[in-house]
Amino acid sequence: MYLDSFFQAMAEFESEGNPQVHKNLSREQFPAYVRQLHDQSIGKNLKDGYIPSKEFWIVDRDGYAGRIILGLTFTPTPEKLGHHVGYAVRPSKRRHGYATKALEALLDEARKLGIHKLMPTCDAANIASRKVIERSGGSLLNPEARVGELRFLIDLDADSSLRASSSTRNADEMG
Ligand SMILES: CC(C)(COP(=O)(O)OP(=O)(O)OC[C@H]1O[C@@H](n2cnc3c(N)ncnc32)[C@H](O)[C@@H]1OP(=O)(O)O)[C@@H](O)C(=O)NCCC(=O)NCCS
Questions:
Q1: What band does 159 get if pLDDT is binned at 50, 70 and 90?
Q2: Start-end of H helices in 63-146
């Protein structure tokens, strides 16, 4: 079931012009793809410019619903204050609270890994993503930006009361 739902999800991403894996990934290549994700999580065979990262899949009773990724290393710069976070929910599963719930769960994983500063970004026009980040306690670092990339910091060392009170509407379906 997961394999079918995975490929159905990839087709959905593809048809909205937002591919999540390389276009011609076949079922035969799927095990190698999963191995590559595992390698990526331990920093093995990294492609140029890639950092180690852990990918988690969002699943519900229908199978694959999306993914969320945590960068395991980062080089601090004035612009880069925390670990990379990326996520995508397949189009047919959006607006059920999955991304919100996934980011909350990722914060717990980050804590376990000793990661306390995360820096999700999103386009200023991406209202859904902005809501997801702010619900998890993301503070906007560049409020002057009206277009282009918004940068947020989630500081797990800071007071977590905002996250504790955040809503997880409809997220009870998640597996
Ligand atoms: C951004 C994304 C991950 C959100 O996933 P999701 O599971 O639908 O998010 P949630 O259901 O947790 O919704 C979070 C909030 O955004 C709102 N929202 C979702 N889609 C929206 C849209 N298209 N326009 C406006 N608000 C939207 C939800 O209604 C919810 O707010 P509410 O509870 O006040 O109603 C998903 O839209 C996606 O995969 N987009 C393409 C990839 C992407 O943009 N990734 C993030 C890159 S920074």
A1: low
A2: 98-112, 127-135
